[in-house]
Design brief:
CATH superfamily of the largest domain: Spore Coat Polysaccharide Biosynthesis Protein SpsA, Chain A
CATH architecture of the largest domain: Alpha-Beta Complex
Oligomer: single chain
CATH class of the largest domain: Alpha Beta
Number of strands: 37
CATH topology of the largest domain: Spore Coat Polysaccharide Biosynthesis Protein SpsA, Chain A
Radius of gyration: 34 Å
Number of domains: 2
Helix content: 10-25%
Bound molecules: uridine-diphosphate-N-acetylglucosamine, magnesium ion
Number of helices: 10
Strand content: 25-35%
Shape: elongated
Distance between the termini: 111 Å
Length: 493
C-alpha cells in the first residue's frame, strides 16, 4: 500500500551534538547525512509526497535536501514546540484548505538513520492489514533511557506512550520503546493532533499522545516490534553517531562479503552506502571507500587507501593510495604512495607508481609513470614510459597549460615538461632535460649543458677532508694498478 505522504521530522537543534556549524540531521554517516538516510528509507515506500519538517538552521537543511533529493518538499516549523506540533505544521501545508489527508501518513524522524526501507514496509503492511488508526514501530532495547516507553495493558494491547521524563519508576522499567516512527490514518491523525495538549514535563505537543487519544476514542492502535532494535537507534550525541556508523558499516561490509568480496579486516575497512563492487575484489586493511567508488572484479585495494568517487577496473591493484574522482583502468597499478586527484584517467594496465601525483591527466593503455613524479594537466599516449622524477610544469603562476606526450615515448629521468608542450609519438628525451619546445615524432629531445670536470679540485680546495683522502687513495690505487699492469706486461715472454 502506497502512503499518501511520508513526513520526516528534522526541525530540532540536536543540542546534545554540541555543534556550532551543523544541525544534528546534517551530520554525515557512511556517505549520507542523517536526514539523507531518513529520506532514502522513506523513498522506498514510493509515497505520493515526501515532506521534511525543517526549523533549526533550516537554510542549510533545505539547501542540502534540494541537492540530495530534489523531489523532497520542505515545510518550516517556526518554533520547535514538539513532535506533535511538527506533524501538524506538515499536515497543514499538505492538506488542501483544511481538508485532512486521506490514506496512510507515515511519520519518521531525521535522526534514525539505521531504519531500513524494509522495516518501514513491514510497518505499513501491518498497519493496512490490521486496519489500524495508528501503528507504532517499537523495539526492545538494552537501555531505554531517554526514550518514550510503550505501555501495554493486561491483554498486551498498546495503551499509550509515556515519555521518559514523564514516566513513573514502574513505567521506566519497561524496555519496549517508541522508535518515533508511525503509520497513521491521515484523517484520524489530524483529529488526534487537534486534541494534543502541552501539560507535560517539557511543555511540548507530543506526537506520541495521539496514540492514547485515538485509543480512548475507540480506534484500533497497533504496534510492530522491529526484528533488530538497532534499526531504530536514535542519534542524539556523537557517541551514538559513532555507534551507528559502526553498525551501518558492518551491514555494508556484510553485504559486500556475501556478494563475493574479500574484506581482510572488517574492523578497519569503511564503506559508504553508494560504493559498488564485483566478486573476487579484495579489500586490504585500513581502507576507506567513499562516495560512488566502484571496485571491479578481482581488483585489490589497500592496505591504506582512501578513495572517493573513484572507479577501479577489474584486476587493478591499488596500494597506499589516495584518490578522488579518478578512473583506474583494468589491470592498472597504483602506488604505493600515489595521489590521484580529480580528472585522472589511467588506461588499462597503466601505472601511477611510488610517490606519484596526478591531476587532470589521461594516461594511455600500458603507459607508466613509475616513480616520484607530478603529472598535472597532461595526456600521455599508450605504451609510453615517463622517467623517474619528472614534473609536468603546468602552472605559469596565473594559468594552467597542458602537456601532450605521444604513444610509445621514452622520456628520461628528471625531465621538466614546460607546458604547453608536445612530444611526438615514439620520441625520446634525455635525462635531466627541461623540455620547453615541442619534440617531433621519433626525435631525441635534449636540453643538457656540457659537463666539465675540474681535476684535483677537492684535494686543492678541501685538503685534509675525508673526501680529499678518499680521492688521494683512489688515485694511488689507480697508479699502483697501472704500474702492476705495466710490470706484468714487461715480464710476459
Ligand atoms: C522522540 C519521542 C520518543 C521516542 C524517540 C525516539 C516524542 C515526544 N518523543 O523523543 O517517544 O522514543 O523520539 O528516538 O515524540 N522535532 C521537530 N520539531 C520539534 C521537536 C522535534 O522536528 O518541535 C524532530 C527532531 O528534529 C527529531 C525528531 O523530531 O528529528 C525527534 O525529536 P527529539 O527531540 O530527538 O525527540 P526525542 O526526545 O528523542
Ligand atoms: Mg531523538
Amino acid at each position: 500500500m502506497t502512503p499518501t505522504a511520508v513526513i520526516v521530522l528534522a526541525a530540532g537543534e540536536g543540542t546534545r551534538m554540541k555543534s556550532a556549524v551543523l544541525p544534528k540531521v546534517l551530520h554525515p554517516l557512511c556517505g549520507r547525512t542523517l536526514v539523507g538516510h531518513a529520506v532514502a528509507a522513506g523513498r522506498e515506500l514510493t509515497p505520493e509526497q515526501l515532506v521534511v519538517v525543517v526549523g533549526h538552521m533550516r537554510e542549510k537543511v533545505t539547501a542540502h535536501l534540494a541537492e540530495a533529493d530534489p523531489g523532497v518538499r520542505t515545510v518550516v516549523q517556526e518554533r520547535q514546540n514538539g513532535t506533535g506540533n511538527a506533524v501538524r505544521v506538515a499536515l497543514e501545508a499538505l492538506g488542501v484548505e483544511g481538508v485532512a489527508l486521506d490514506g496512510t501518513v507515515v511519520v519518521t524522524t531525521g535522526d534514525t538513520p539505521l531504519l531500513t526501507g524494509a522495516t518501514l514496509q513491514a510497518l505499513v503492511a501491518a498497519h493496512g492489514q490490521d486496519g489500524n488508526a495508528v501503528t507504532v514501530l517499537t523495539a526492545e532495547v538494552p537501555d531505554a533511557t531517554g526514550y518514550g516507553r510503550i505501555i501495554r495493558g493486561a491483554d498486551g494491547a498498546v495503551q499509550a506512550i509515556v515519555e521518559h521524563k514523564d514516566a513513573s519508576d514502574e513505567q521506566r522499567a519497561v524496555r519496549e520503546i517508541n522508535s518515533g516512527v508511525f503509520a497513521f490514518d491521515g484523517k484520524l491523525l489530524a483529529q488526534g493532533l487537534a486534541e494534543v495538549r502541552t501539560d507535560n514535563s517539557q511543555g511540548e505537543e507530543y506526537l506520541t499522545d495521539v496514540l492514547g487519544i485515538l485509543r480512548e476514542a475507540g480506534h484500533r492502535v497497533g504496534a510492530v516490534v522491529a526484528d533488530d532494535y538497532r534499526d531504530i537507534l536514535g542519534i542524539n550525541d556523537r557517541v551514538q553517531l559513532a555507534e551507528a556508523r559502526r553498525i551501518m558499516n558492518d551491514r555494508l561490509l556484510d553485504a559486500a562479503m556475501r556478494a563475493g568480496v574479500t574484506v581482510v579486516d572488517p574492523a578497519t575497512t569503511w564503506l559508504d552506502v553508494q560504493v559498488t563492487y564485483e566478486r573476487d575484489a579484495v579489500i586490504h586493511p585500513n581502507t576507506q571507500l567513499h562516495g560512488a567508488t566502484s571496485v571491479g572484479e578481482g581488483a585489490e585495494v589497500g592496505p591504506n587507501c582512501t578513495l572517493r568517487d573513484t572507479g577501479i577496473g577489474a584486476g587493478a591493484v591499488v596500494i597506499n593510495a589516495t584518490a578522488e574522482r579518478a578512473v583506474i583502468g583494468a589491470g592498472a597499478n597504483v602506488g604505493p604512495y600515489a595521489y590521484l586527484r580529480p580528472g585522472t584517467v589511467l588506461g588499462a594496465k597503466a601505472k601511477a607508481g611510488t610517490y606519484v601525483e596526478m591531476k587532470n591527466a589521461v594516461v594511455g593503455d600500458g603507459a607508466k609513470v613509475p616513480h616520484l613524479s607530478y603529472v598535472g594537466d597532461a595526456t600521455i599516449g599508450e605504451g609510453t614510459n615517463i622517467g623517474a622524477a619528472s614534473v609536468f610544469v603546468n602552472y605559469d603562476g596565473v594559468n594552467k597549460h597542458r602537456t601532450t606526450i605521444g604513444a610509445h615515448c621514452r622520456t628520461g629521468s628528471d625531465n621538466m615538461f614546460v607546458a604547453p608542450v608536445t612530444v611526438g609519438d615514439g620520441a625520446y628525451t634525455a635525462a635531466g632535460s627541461v623540455i620547453y619546445q615541442d619534440v617531433p615524432a621519433g626525435a631525441l629531445g635534449v636540453t643538457r649543458p656540457q659537463q666539465r670536470n675540474i681535476e684535483g679540485w677537492v684535494e686543492r680546495k678541501r685538503p685534509g677532508t675525508a673526501s680529499a683522502q678518499a680521492a688521494a687513495a683512489a688515485k694511488a690505487a689507480a697508479q699502483d694498478g697501472a704500474e702492476e699492469a705495466e710490470g706484468a706486461a714487461s715480464t710476459t715472454p
